[in-house]
Write a structure and sequence with these properties.
By secondary structure, this protein is mainly alpha-helical. It is built from 1 helix and no strands.
């Protein structure tokens, strides 16, 4: 049981570290449906 808790803390810490190193371009808010999204791809 203790090993599971330690593993969870390590994985959560690694995830938080990677999210903070990503800068402003990482969004954890999910899909965005508004004017701030990019334009649709053009047909070729």
């Amino acid at each position: 049981m203790v090993k599971i808790v330690i593993a969870f803390v390590v994985v959560a810490g690694a995830a938080l570290y990677l999210l903070t190193k990503g800068g402003d371009d990482v969004s954890i808010a999910g899909e965005q449906h508004g004017t701030e999204t990019h334009a649709p791809a053009t047909q070729k």
